[in-house]
């Protein structure tokens, strides 16, 4: 059975957008699991995703205040089928990221992160998949805003970056 996971990060509502785009909300409704890698900024967005998602995992980011930090961990861990997943907001500089994350998250198969607003998809030397979905509301230097779908089937991880319009 394939599990479909929607990856989000850096929504920054209401600073970068008044609310999540409709395409994101439709994706939340379709996903088996929704993961948010931090920088929510407002509590109502967390409430919305928790209420709509079948299953939800999230962390706080550097722009999230005390209310969000009280409700969310810095690091989330869970297992989907045979895949051990970890979620964190920030991983540091792109240079050397895979090596640092191999050391920090030994045994993890999939690491989801945010912070940069720049989509990322690599595999570390130890075989860990590192994914950053970008931002659905603040594209920064990217051509479009983005989110990411992940399909997990057994130990197989397939990721697809999706433009948000």
From TrEMBL:
InterPro entries with a match to the protein in the record: Calcineurin-like_PHP_lpxH, Metallo-depent_PP-like, Phosphodiesterase_MJ0936/Vps29
Record carries keyword Cytoplasm: no
Chain ranges of the Calcineurin-like phosphoesterase domain: 4-153
Cofactors named for this entry: a divalent metal cation
Keywords recorded for this protein, A-Z: Metal-binding
Organism domain of life: Bacteria
Keyword Metal-binding: yes
Enzyme Commission number, as recorded: 3.1.4.-
Family: Belongs to the metallophosphoesterase superfamily. YfcE family.
Protein name: Phosphoesterase
Annotated organism of origin: Microbacterium luteolum
